């Protein structure tokens, strides 16, 4: 149990945290985050530091880099079935950016995903309060950084996102067959976490919660292509080229 001493006007206020501010917090559940720098923002040094600390603390991180739109981040968060989004924003449009992200998550039925952000001195306290009121889980200020430290802020995020996504929203597993991104992501998470009351895998078949197999709507079989090779052999380049050609030649993919 750590204690933060917060100075407000002339008063000192003690704030207690259920985690260490110096040692990595170990969550009960598998935690996933999407990290990125906001649109029109090339300042990626801080978000790179934060995502590395997240990774070293045991969190699975999907890092999108810099100059990322709200749509890109929200779509990725849903498709990866993450518990949290972490954004750095130094371009001045943070209020509209974060509010739109909250709105879009709600529209997509993913309001359970927590949003965190920071922007140094660019985001002032009045704006932080406004964003918290709008539904952003936490915007870290300059004072937070000096008082909590990097690991303390990361531990706060991990602690807030330590939950099983499967318990947050109802997903119709039948929609997996309709290629609905949220359903597919939730099915993968359920299988990964062993939520057999929702979906299970037995004898090379996916089973619904009633024990019946999830049958494909088509009798077609899908070939599986494996690409291997030593480091530097060109696996990634070959994969990129194959995917690019499929997208170019088959518009309905």
Gyration radius, rounded: 21 Å
Which CATH architecture of the largest domain is right? 3-Layer(aba) Sandwich
CATH class of the largest domain: Alpha Beta
Q: Note the gap between the termini.
A: 51 Å
**What would CATH call the homologous superfamily of the largest domain?**
Cobalamin-binding domain
Strand order of the largest sheet: 4-3-5-6-7
Q: Helical content, roughly?
A: 25-40%
Q: Report strand %.
A: 15-25%
The CATH topology of the largest domain is: Rossmann fold
The overall pLDDT, averaged over residues, is 89
**What's the total number of strands?**
9
**Uncertain spans:** 1-14
- Report on the biggest sheet: 5 strands, parallel
N-to-C SSE string, H for helix and E for strand: EEEHEHEHEHEHHEEH
Helix count equals 7
Domain count, please report it. 2
Global shape: globular
Structural class from helices and strands? Answer: alpha/beta
Pick out its properties.
253 residues; alpha/beta; Rossmann fold; 2 domains; five-stranded parallel beta sheet; two-stranded antiparallel ribbon; 7 helices; 18% strand; disordered N terminus
What does this structure look like?
The chain has helices at 45-56, 70-79, 94-107, 125-134, 142-160, 181-193, 235-249; strands at residues 2-8, 11-17, 32-37, 60-63, 84-88, 114-118, 138-140, 199-202, 205-208. The protein is of the alpha/beta class. α2 runs parallel beside α3 (94-107) and α3 (94-107) packs parallel to α4 (125-134). It folds into 2 domains: 2-163, Cobalamin-binding domain (Rossmann fold, 3-Layer(aba) Sandwich), CATH 3.40.50; 166-249, no CATH class. A 5-stranded parallel β-sheet has the order 4-3-5-6-7, with helices on both faces. A two-stranded antiparallel ribbon has the order 1-2. A two-stranded antiparallel ribbon has the order 8-9. It is built from 7 helices and 9 strands; from the N terminus they run βββαβαβαβαβααββα.
């Amino acid at each position: 149990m750590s204690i933060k001493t917060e100075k407000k006007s002339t008063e000192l206020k003690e704030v207690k945290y259920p985690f260490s501010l110096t040692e990595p917090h170990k969550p009960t559940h598998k935690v996933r985050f999407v990290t990125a720098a906001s649109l029109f923002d090339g300042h990626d040094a801080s978000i790179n530091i934060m995502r590395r600390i997240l990774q070293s603390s045991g969190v699975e991180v999907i890092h999108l880099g810099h100059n990322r739109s709200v749509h890109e981040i929200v779509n990725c968060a849903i498709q990866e079935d993450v518990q949290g989004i972490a954004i750095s924003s130094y371009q001045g449009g943070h209020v509209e950016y974060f509010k739109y992200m909250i709105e879009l998550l709600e529209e997509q039925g993913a309001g359970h995903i927590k949003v965190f952000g920071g922007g140094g001195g660019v985001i002032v306290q009045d704006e932080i309060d406004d964003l918290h009121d709008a539904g952003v889980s936490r915007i870290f200020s300059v004072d937070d950084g000096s008082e909590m430290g990097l690991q303390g802020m990361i531990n706060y995020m991990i602690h807030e996102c330590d939950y099983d996504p499967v318990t947050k929203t109802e997903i119709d597993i039948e929609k997996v067959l309709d290629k609905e991104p949220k359903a597919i992501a939730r099915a993968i998470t359920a299988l990964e976490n062993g939520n057999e009351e929702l979906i299970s895998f037995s004898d090379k078949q996916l089973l619904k919660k009633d024990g019946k197999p999830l049958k494909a709507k088509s009798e077609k079989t899908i070939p599986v292509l494996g690409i291997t090779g030593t480091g530097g052999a060109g696996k990634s380049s070959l994969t990129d080229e194959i995917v690019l050609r499929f997208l170019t030649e088959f518009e309905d993919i």
